[in-house]
Amino acid sequence: MKLRRVRASKIIYPLIKATKANVKINISELEAHYLAGGNVNNVVDALIAAQKANLFVFAHFLILVVTGQMPILRLASMN
Fold first, then answer.
1. Integer Cα distance of 15 and 12 in angstroms
2. What is the CA radius of gyration of the chain?
């Protein structure tokens, strides 16, 4: 984090909050989101809310689509 000039508090506090809420996320994912210009704290809050509402699988699915790890073409073939 220090090499990329990322303040540790911007990553560590949301990571602690996610860990306490039993949300499985690692530090490199949070750091990548921060470096992409995202608000890590808001994302962690949204993941916690989705897990509490039993929407965690759907939220994880959307993250895969948005990050490009699951191509849209594959989604179109699922219909």
1. 5
2. 14
Counting Cβ atoms within 10 Å, is residue 71 exposed (0-12), middle (13-18) or buried (19+)?
Answer: exposed
Q: Helices (H), strands (E): how many in the chain?
A: 5, 0
- Give the predicted TM-score (pTM) of the model: 0.64
Contact 48, 42 (CB under 8 A): no
Q: Measuring CA to CA, how many Å separate 19 from each of 5, 47, 70? A: 24, 11, 25
pLDDT digits 0-9 by tens, 30-75? 888 888 888 888 888 888 887 887 765 666 666 666 666 555 544 4
CB 25 within 8 A of CB 6: no
